[in-house]
Design goal:
mainly beta, about 45% strand, globular
Length: about 120
């Protein structure tokens, strides 16, 4: 057991759309990531997608629905199977929780690696 300083972890990398695992939680990866620009539309057929905005602001596009703005201190959960796309005009720092091995794109062939820091 140890404390994880999220600001310190986020300072360890500058890339966008590149999740880094900072902790394990009940079979899930707890990750930090920086968003800027648009991520492709995708879905996760077997799991919800959890986003907690730590700093900045993101927009969640959901197919067939109006965009949702998510600000620092707010979280957004996309239900499994729903096609979505996060985007951020300016850099946004986000905490993600996903089952271990879940590809960030919903497809292992196009997923980013998830290094542990």
């Amino acid at each position: 057991m140890k404390t994880v300083n999220l600001a310190e972890k986020l300072a360890m990398f500058s890339s966008h759309w590149d999740p880094h695992v900072v902790a394990d939680f009940n079979g899930n990866d707890v990750m930090v990531v920086k968003f800027q620009g648009e991520f492709p539309f995708h879905h996760h057929p077997d799991t919800d997608d959890f986003f907690l905005v730590l700093e900045g602001e993101m927009v969640m596009d959901i197919e067939g629905e109006p965009p949702q703005t998510v600000r620092a201190g707010e979280l957004f959960v996309v239900p499994k199977g729903v096609s979505h796309r996060p985007r951020a005009e300016r850099e946004c720092k986000v905490l993600l929780i996903e089952p271990k091995g879940e590809p960030n794109t919903g497809d292992a062939a196009t997923a980013a690696p998830k290094p542990r820091i």
